[in-house]
């Protein structure tokens, strides 16, 4: 959600340009900043969301993909390394220029991607490698005894960049060799032929990144004494929930994109709290991040406004009669539209108790600027959750 000022918005950020009355109300009680990305670590959603949940990434982070594996029900052995495998679109302009056009193959559908995954498993992979189909462009590759020398790059970090220098290292890097082996199968795959005819971006390459082995971390119950649930369309977040001991709450129509079922997620959270005897819900919405990766500020504004109205508003209304509750809204990291990737700055949050909200009269707005001006900052991001649970 967090972003930079944009000339197209007369110097406003997308959050400043969006109408977010429900988050504004929460921010009138408390707002501030949280450094979710420890210095020296990559600004990924894995690191950031571990921080938000109160887990120090320097202790518990081993890579993104082991968390996704947990969400998909894949139990990693000690000898196995998990990789995120994206379907991406590369533009092979010449021997010296191969551009990363799309980190998501133009938001390829889950059904299309599953067909390709099944064919990849039959053709180019070795007995040491198994691919598990995920959602849309996001999939899992598990590698037995993977070489430790493998160096990977998140594809959303290099959009519109020339990848030749990286792709020329196949003799030194087995991941690059595997990426290039996928090209022959994918070039004229039936799914891509259909996408080509329709004028859509093709899934003409796999891309490996985010590798790691299974982490060891205590449950949220052991840490904070609370029974939790998780709601997300993204395997990464659901996987963090698995390791935290959360119960997953399935929401029909949760896609990870701008068309996700915002209200259904809020209703799922209320059901978990009011009917399923849960103490804590971690509800994640990916849509603003995806819009920013695509460089689309209009869709990002739309996603933020839908989140405020249909998620935050629905939850506040549903909890109105409760005697005691706490709510926190946080951006896990910046994803500036102009950069199309994640950055390191401390991200804004706002929070309130039900009692505070009953007395709140507004008067503040939830933006990056007001969070900065508050003077509140959690430099160690994993300290925000304990403070929130204790009531600051």
Polypeptide structure, described:
- This protein has 392 residues and is an alpha/beta fold.
- It folds into 2 domains: 7-61 and 218-390, Alkaline Phosphatase, subunit A; 80-212, no CATH class.
- 38% of the residues lie in helices and 18% in strands.
- It has helices at 14-17, 21-27, 45-52, 57-60, 65-71, 110-123, 164-167, 174-187, 190-198, 220-224, 235-244, 262-274, 287-293, 297-318, 354-359, 368-373, 384-390, and strands spanning 31-34, 80-94, 97-102, 129-135, 138-144, 205-212, 228-231, 247-248, 280-283, 326-330, 347-353, 377-378.
- The strands form 3 sheets. Strands 2, 3, 4, 5 and 6 form a 5-stranded antiparallel beta sheet that branches. Strands 10-11-1-12 form a 4-stranded mixed beta sheet.
- Helix 5 (65-71) packs across helix 11, helix 12 (262-274) packs parallel to helix 14 (297-318) and helix 13 packs antiparallel against helix 14.
- The longest helix is centred in the last third of the chain and has 22 residues, at 297-318.
């Amino acid at each position: 959600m967090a972003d930079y000022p944009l000339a197209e918005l007369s110097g406003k950020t997308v959050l400043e340009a969006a109408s977010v009355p429900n988050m504004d109300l929460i921010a009138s009680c408390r707002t501030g900043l949280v450094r979710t990305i420890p210095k020296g670590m990559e600004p990924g959603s894995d690191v950031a969301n571990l921080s938000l949940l109160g887990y120090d990434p320097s202790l518990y982070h081993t890579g993104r993909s082991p968390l996704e594996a947990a969400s998909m029900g894949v139990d990693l052995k000690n000898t196995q390394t998990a990789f995120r495998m994206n379907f991406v679109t590369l533009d092979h302009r010449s021997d010296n220029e191969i551009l990363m056009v799309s980190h998501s193959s133009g938001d390829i559908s889950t059904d299309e991607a599953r067909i390709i995954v099944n064919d990849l498993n039959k053709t180019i992979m070795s007995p040491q490698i198994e691919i598990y189909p995920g959602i849309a462009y996001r999939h899992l590759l598990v590698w037995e005894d993977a070489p430790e020398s493998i160096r990977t790059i998140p594809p959303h970090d290099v959009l519109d960049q020339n990848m030749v220098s990286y792709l020329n290292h196949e003799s030194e890097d087995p991941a690059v060799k595997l990426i290039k082996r996928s090209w022959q199968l994918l070039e004229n795959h039936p799914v891509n032929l259909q996408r080509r005819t329709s004028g859509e971006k093709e899934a003409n390459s796999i891309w490996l990144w985010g590798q790691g082995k299974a982490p060891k971390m205590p449950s949220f119950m052991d840490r904070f004494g609370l029974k939790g649930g998780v709601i997300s369309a993204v395997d990464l977040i659901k996987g963090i929930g698995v390791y935290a001991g959360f119960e997953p709450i399935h929401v029909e129509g949760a896609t990870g994109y701008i068309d996700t079922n915002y209200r259904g997620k809020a209703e799922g959270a209320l059901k978990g709290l009011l009917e399923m005897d849960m103490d804590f819900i971690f509800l994640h919405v990916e849509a603003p991040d995806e819009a920013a990766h695509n460089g689309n500020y209009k869709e990002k504004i739309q996603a933020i406004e839908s989140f405020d109205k249909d998620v935050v508003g629905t939850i506040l209304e549903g909890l109105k009669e409760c005697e005691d509750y706490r709510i926190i809204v946080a951006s896990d990291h910046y994803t500036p539209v102009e950069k199309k990737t994640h950055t390191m700055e401390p991200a804004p949050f706002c929070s309130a108790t039900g009692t505070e909200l009953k007395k709140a009269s507004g008067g503040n707005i939830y933006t990056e600027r007001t969070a900065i001006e508050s003077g509140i900052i959690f430099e160690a991001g994993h300290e925000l959750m304990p403070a929130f649970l204790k009531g600051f």
